[in-house]
Task: structure prediction
Amino acid sequence: MFIEQPPLPYRLLFPEAIWRIKQRGGKPVVYLTFDDGPIPEQTPWVLDVLDRYGVKATFFMVGDNVRRHPELLEEVRRRGHSYGNHTMHHLQGMKVRAHRYLRDVAEAAALIDSPLFRPPHGLIRWKQAKALKERYNIIMYDVVTRDYSRKLTSAQVLANVKRYTRNGSIIVFHDSLKAGDRMREALPEAIEWLLSQGYELRPLPM
Result:
């Protein structure tokens, strides 16, 4: 559960970040997000699935992928989804010094014009977070599907969505090669289940 739905003590380590967007009254809402793209092998397929169900999502993009595939950022924007910065080279903040991390984020920002930022692996140093908070809304997550794990089946990925999703959840999938067929099999079923439970699926506001 520590991975799939980070507990409160872990969330309190990063008070600058948004983990969940609590809803008061009305229809329950969740926020689908996709990390590590955009890539031609996965992102267009995800966009077509979202169109099929008439829902919007948020894509946290690696700058180097945008550099290689700028047309995919434009397609995400054209189809009405929001998007955010996921560093230039998918750096894990805990493994690099602040100046290098912030330089990498700035390099990605030259390609990805967005006030949203998500640290790769959900790991970031306090000094990095404090500096980034001046410019970005730092978006973490409430549910990690773990579609990237080769130890899980697509059924288990879907089960994570069903078990941990709640009103206001920010849910993480991956439009990456690593997520592969697990994401492709689980995503449509997850969307259908969320809609059947009465959730409205929204993109994170930019």
Summary: The longest strand covers residues 29-35. The chain has one domain: 8-201. Residues 6 and 142 are 7 Å apart (CA to CA). The chain has eight helices and nine strands.
